[in-house]
Amino acid sequence: MPRRRPPRTAPEPIRATSMWRVDQVFLARRGLRVEVTCSLVNDQGGLRNLSVTAPTEDPHAAVRHAARFIAGRGNVSSARQARVRWTREQATTEQDALIRDRALEDEFLDEFEDTLAAVRDQQR
Description:
- By secondary structure, this protein is α/β, with parallel strands linked by helices.
- The protein has one domain (20-123).
- Helix content is 28%, strand content 29%.
- The chain contains two helices and five strands, in the order βββαββα.
- The protein has helices spanning 59-71, 102-123; strands at 20-30, 33-42, 47-54, 76-78, 83-86.
- Strands 1, 2, 3, 4 and 5 form a five-stranded mixed β-sheet that branches.
């Protein structure tokens, strides 16, 4: 007697556009510039990283530059509770790698929200 196949279930549909949120932001000095890597997550548990090298060595200007870049992409919906840290190469001790820079977090979130509001205003 032939074995019956279990009924096929439809695979989880792939959404054409998935909304992402910024989870973590990592800073690394690259010569006279600061490289900013944003770790993004979506509601299905997806993860991706976007990197941008800011044309400055000032970390505050670098996170503002990265926030404008990320918010301008259009499919990143929020950056609330995003943690900003320096990468391990920049930390002098293991404890330094765990320290969050709250001033840079506020700077990133403010610029992100301002840029996101401007993008939404243009779309209206």
